[in-house]
Amino acid sequence: MNIRRTLFDEIKDHLSKKEITLIVGPRQVGKTTLMKELIKYLDEKGEKTIFLNLDYDSDKKFFESQEDLIKKIELEIGDRGFVFIDEIQRKENAGLFLKGLYDKGLSYKFVVSGSGSLELKEKIHESLAGRKRMFILRPISLKEFVNFKTGYKYADKLDKFFDIETEKSKMLLTEYLNFGGYPMVILEKERKEKNKIMEEIFRSCIEKDLLSLLKIDRPEAFSSMIKILSSQAGQILNYSKLAEQISLTFEPLKKYLWYGEKTFLIETCFPFFTNKQKEITKAPLVYFLDIGLRNFSIGMMGNVEDREKLGLIFQNLIFNILQEKISGTAKTINFWRTISGSEVDFIINKGGERIPVEAKYSEMKKPDIEKPLMDFVDKYAPKEAWVVNLSLRAEKKIGKTTVKFLPYYDLI
Description:
This protein is an alpha/beta fold. The protein folds into two domains: 7-136, P-loop containing nucleotide triphosphate hydrolases (Rossmann fold, 3-Layer(aba) Sandwich); 142-412, no CATH class. It is 46% helix and 19% strand. The chain is built from 19 helices and 13 strands. The strands form three sheets. It has a six-stranded mixed β-sheet, sandwiched between helices. Strands 2-3-4-1-5 form a five-stranded parallel β-sheet, sandwiched between helices. Strand 8 and strand 9 form a beta hairpin. Helix 8 packs across helix 10 and helix 10 crosses helix 17 (291-297). The longest helix has 23 residues, at 191-213. The two termini are 22 Å apart. The mean pLDDT is 92.
């Protein structure tokens, strides 16, 4: 059984648009599988499709020029249809190549996929401005994971499943917090094999994206950086200490961190300030797009049982869920910390609207509000504040602020 992706319906709806549909995301996250699912859907409708993969030598020859590619497309599907191109980052000047095809006004719909290095290598946003819509395929979300693990039996009533099947829900959450959301890891049943798969995924990112395409000069330093960040996920980044630990100066370190973000390994969360300039200059927190990769990097994948460690991973999970929720909006996610040490995990921020969010890996029994969140509420008086926990659903009024206690599954 395939793992159904939420993004499928969004992309399916975009197939009728003239714009190029661009699918990007981490390696091994299921971009090719998603494209083949789309092809199957179109084939069943009687549409003409062609699939080309630049990882295949037999397909590369058709990308020597736009004319060569058009001849191949015409041969296979005539003058109208859907053209799927996988691993486009392997094409030199991919952005300009696609721009030229689009500007010819052909009666083809192009659906293109690429890894994160595509954006770095080709400046594809500039080349395809106004000609594409980009979809980011992330690792399997907790919602997608639970639906798959329950055979899609509760797909339209997942909230009731979590409320009623509490023990099963807890087991699935623990599994996800340990192994994360890479499809091949989820589909593999043996723990030892899961680790081998994750090792291959990590090596593939280093070798194919960073070494082969981006020509990174210190792959061992990049690998060490990821491992150190894994052990410090959710903690404020100390640039000078990290640079010293991996024997890099400040500027190369900043570049490597940027590579880590653009290849979809890590994401940064910057502090919340009403003065935006301070927000940009202050050190961020670092989280991982896939918590399984984070665990693997420090030798913990499948072996996380300690409540404190699970709490840090749970915080990373909530960050990922919030990032998905605000995708495509003008909202940002920040964290808040004062000189005196008060800290709120996340601030969902849109202009003057702010929602502080605390992530608590705890079976809360009553709606207790801790001092840091109270400090934020006292200072900014937001309309809402959230305390995301394992089970408690409740509300509490503090002045003008409604503090909502939400089980984590309410967010998904």
